Amino acid sequence: MNTFSLVFKVHHPFYLRPYRFFDIDSRHDYYDDYRNKYVLKRFSERSYEKANQLLASIFERYGERVKVAFVFSGNAVDQMQWYAPEMLDGFKKLLSSPNVEILAGDDSGGVMGLLHKELWEEQVKRHRRRMEEVFGKCGKVLAGTQLLYDDKMGEAAFALGFKGILTEGAKPILGWKSPHVVYRHPEKDIKLILRDGALSESISLHFAQQPRTAETFVAKAMEGEAPLRGNSHITIYCNYAVFGEFQGEETGIFDFLEYLPAAVFKNGLEFAFPSDLCRLTEEAPALHVPFTISDMDEEKDMTAFYANELQRDVMENWKQACSVMIDCKDEELQKDFRFLTGVEHLIFMSTKYFTEKPSVRYLTPYDSPYDAYINYMNVWADFSRRLEKVR
Q1: Angle at Cα 379 formed by Cα 378 and Cα 385, nearest 5°?
Q2: pLDDT at 48
Q3: CB neighbour class for 327 (10 Å; exposed up to 12, middle 13-18, buried from 19)
């Protein structure tokens, strides 16, 4: 049986307010509440409300044949709880449906998996607890920040009890192999579900420039670079805000979503949760991933957030703080550490040439990567001094 999986990410970074050198040691309010509220409200009005209503109507029309998975970051849930509880209620209502599966993640939307194994494990455990508390469920498939993955992360995820990991179908890893096959870790019994990057980005990045109907999209997917054979899957993973925010309503993106299930069924596909793919595939070929991959840019590597001296300096500061944070009992420091180690802070400092509007770079509050670095390091200097007091 050939299957089709839709996975949507909901994440909102905590933007920092302008923080001057003279604020260090005198102010610990790091976050730009106005911007955080504004962005959340804007996304809700332009994207989430209508997309939720549309999905609910699709579920009613097709019953449990349509299946959708969501990945919520802890930061997004925090912001909804603090700034827009009615938005969170809307998501709770949608996600209570049996048509929806919730995937696990690393709570802050950070890169702790690259820095400190124990802290990463704690963030994953915390995320699972929060999903259970807020939405009443959380599956056994992991989708980390920017789909970061390598063999070591696979081993750690297996030790935490996960059955599968969603990651990028990166060509440097796959070579001639197809992203439409469920693979497994070379040594552990954990499945690797690969995102089809080209198809996902044709929706999330290029839909306005190359609008297409749901039927032509699915037809192309069936006969694309890696055409489907028996027991294959197509996995689409993109930001939920692509509907209405990153791709405006005028592009026809909501119509695309509305007619997508009919196109899927017409082409002989069935919807599947990521957890279904883990169960349906017993004999999965091994896939060795010796270096870290992600879903970022054409390279599908770490260069979006670990390529220049600014970013490496920030990462080194994070690494030095990890040994203290693992034993830190101060809840305020733990909260700030989670918010300050989000991957967006690194992406705002990137000096790569980016053309992709539907991304966090499109929402950067800074005029340049250097402004981002200076503002961030002022905040980090204050945080570090607070951390020194609890050593």
Answers
A1: 95
A2: 97
A3: exposed
The H or E element that residue 171 is part of is: helix 171-174
Q: How confident is the model at residue 355 (pLDDT cuts 50, 70, 90)?
A: very low
Residue 191 is classified by DSSP as E
Residue appearing with tokens 């805000």: 241
List strand residue ranges (DSSP E) for the chain, in order: 3-10, 68-72, 100-102, 141-142, 164-168, 183-184, 191-195, 233-239, 243-244, 247-248, 270-271
CATH number at residue 45: 3.20.110.20
The H-or-E segment that residue 119 falls in is helix 117-135
The domain of 361 spans: 309-388
The residue among 234, 265, 280 that closes a domain is 280
Amino acid in position 164:
G
**Both 356 and 207 in a single domain?**
no
Give how far the C-alpha of residue 221 lies from the chain's centroid of Cα atoms, to the nearest Å.
22
pLDDT band at 1 (very low <50, low <70, confident <90, very high): confident
In a 13 Å sphere around the CA of 127, the CA atoms on its Cβ side amount to 31
CA atoms of 361 and 283, how far apart (whole Å): 40
pTM for the whole structure: 0.94
Q: Is 213 inside a domain boundary?
A: yes
Who contacts 139 (Cβ-Cβ below 8 Å, separation ≥6)?
A: 69, 101, 102, 103, 104, 273, 274, 275
The DSSP call for residue 251 is G
